From TrEMBL:
The keyword Hydrolase does not apply. Xylitol dehydrogenase which catalyzes the conversion of xylitol to D-xylulose. Xylose is a major component of hemicelluloses such as xylan. Most fungi utilize D-xylose via three enzymatic reactions, xylose reductase (XR), xylitol dehydrogenase (XDH), and xylulokinase, to form xylulose 5-phosphate, which enters pentose phosphate pathway. Belongs to the zinc-containing alcohol dehydrogenase family. It comes from Mollisia scopiformis. Its cofactor is Zn(2+). This is D-xylulose reductase. Transmembrane segments: none annotated. Pathway: Carbohydrate degradation; L-arabinose degradation via L-arabinitol; D-xylulose 5-phosphate from L-arabinose (fungal route): step 4/5. PROSITE patterns: ADH_ZINC. GO terms for biological process: sorbitol catabolic process. GO terms for molecular function: D-xylulose reductase activity; L-iditol 2-dehydrogenase (NAD+) activity; zinc ion binding. Its EC number is 1.1.1.9. Pfam families: ADH_N, ADH_zinc_N.
Length: 354
């Protein structure tokens, strides 16, 4: 394997470049050094590229993009017992402090001092090499490809959201937004035993895909009130009295409002989508229906492990989501395609992948 640590860098909004950076070294005896094979492009990477910031996270210095990666272990620290050189792994891209109150309570995704790939100021994984603690690297079984390994990240997002939604066998669930995250929520809900899964989107092609992937029903909202959309959604999906759980994976205000109206009394609402920070919210319906509303942020204890398991056992076929793979040198073109809404999940190979 070549030794290039070519890195794909966001300098400032709308300014991308390639740079040969020094190969990283292990930061702790528990770390492994990974040659990156494949990386998926996430909406957040595109957002940083376009705007240079997401909420409080502002790109002030050049930053390597990418956080949805799978790679091959090329060096292990002296204290690593679980991995060896040559292992193919999915990389969990956030390293928590392991000492703060949320970390100690087992909710490390809520860590006060998280170092997350491609969330400023931390560099991401679109480079030749990346280091990570061995316990945040998940060995892929032989029959799972490295391309599938790159999809474990968004799948873990879906696992966390669906766990938050408390989906039980026989449950009905509505998923707002049929992008990668919403589609993977549908698939995880199916694996958890949901029997009615309604995918909602404003793009017909995405609904068509959702129906072929994991949804039992699809719904296209109209430009009418949230109450009217909710009533038609329930009628068309045969959900008398409302859905048990509704997940927003769109971030769109109308979806969020429709969700609350389409839930059954006592149902669970999960906010997975990140759109406008403030919206009008049907708080009276939340109150009188005794809805449980929760957030969902990245992934926590056991989510990555379960995501790998769902792929390995064939319960979630992430291969179907892969639109194509581009060479490392074509990363910017791939970013442009994702921005233009082309395909579902584009992977970038390399730069050491041949
Ligand atoms: N909570 C987390 O940890 C986490 C992690 C990753 C992504 N996200 C967020 O999840 C969301 C989905 O991510 P993605 O990668 O699938 O993005 P995406 O943009 O590909 O998908 C969003 C989908 O929502 C649809 N949509 C837009 N307006 C709608 C409306 N009014 N009604 C129904 N559907 C509508 C779009 O057509 C699109 O298909 C994004 O907001 C993203 O920021 C959250
Ligand atoms: Zn992502
Ligand atoms: Zn912590």
């Amino acid at each position: 394997m070549a030794e290039s640590n070519l890195s794909f860098i966001l300098n400032k909004p709308l300014s991308l470049s390639f740079e040969e950076r020094p190969k990283p070294t292990l930061k702790s005896p528990q770390d492994v050094l990974i040659a990156i094979n494949y990386t998926g492009i996430c909406g957040s990477d595109v957002h940083y590229w376009q705007h240079g910031a997401i909420g409080p996270f502002v790109v002030k210095d050049p930053m390597v993009l990418g956080h949805e990666s799978a790679g091959t272990v090329v060096e292990v620290g002296p204290a690593v017992k679980t991995l060896k050189v040559g292992d193919r792994i999915a990389i969990e891209p956030g390293t928590p402090c392991r000492h703060c109150t949320p970390c100690l309570a087992g909710h490390y995704n809520l860590c006060d001092d998280m170092r997350f790939a491609a969330t400023p100021p931390y560099d991401g994984t679109l480079a030749g090499f990346y280091t990570a603690p061995a316990d945040f690297c998940y060995k892929l079984p032989e029959h799972v490809s490295l391309q599938e390994g790159a999809l474990v990240e968004p799948l873990a997002v879906g696992v966390h959201i669906v766990k938050q939604a408390e989906i039980k066998p026989g449950a009905s669930v509505v998923v707002m937004g049929a992008g990668p995250v919403g589609l993977l929520c549908c698939a995880v809900a199916k694996a958890f035993g949901a029997s009615t899964i309604v995918a909602v989107d404003i793009q017909p092609a995405r609904l068509e895909f959702a129906a072929s992937f994991a949804a039992t029903h699809t719904f296209m909202p109209e430009r009418v009130s949230a109450e009217v959309n909710a009533a038609r959604l329930l009628k068309e999906s045969g959900l008398i009295g409302g859905a048990d759980a509704i997940i927003d994976a769109s971030g769109a205000e109308p979806s969020i409002q429709t969700s609350i109206h389409a839930l059954r009394r006592g149902g669970v609402y999960v906010q997975g989508g990140m759109g406008k920070p403030d919206i009008n919210f049907p708080i009276m319906a939340l109150c009188t229906k005794e809805i449980t509303a929760k957030g969902s942020f990245r992934y926590g204890s056991g989510d990555y492990k379960l995501a790998v398991e769902l792929v390995a056992t064939g319960k979630v076929d992430v291969k179907k989501l892969i639109t194509g793979t581009v060479k490392f040198e074509d990363a910017e073109k791939a970013f442009q395609d994702v921005k233009a809404g082309k395909g579902i999940k584009v992977l970038i190979a390399g730069p050491n992948e041949k």
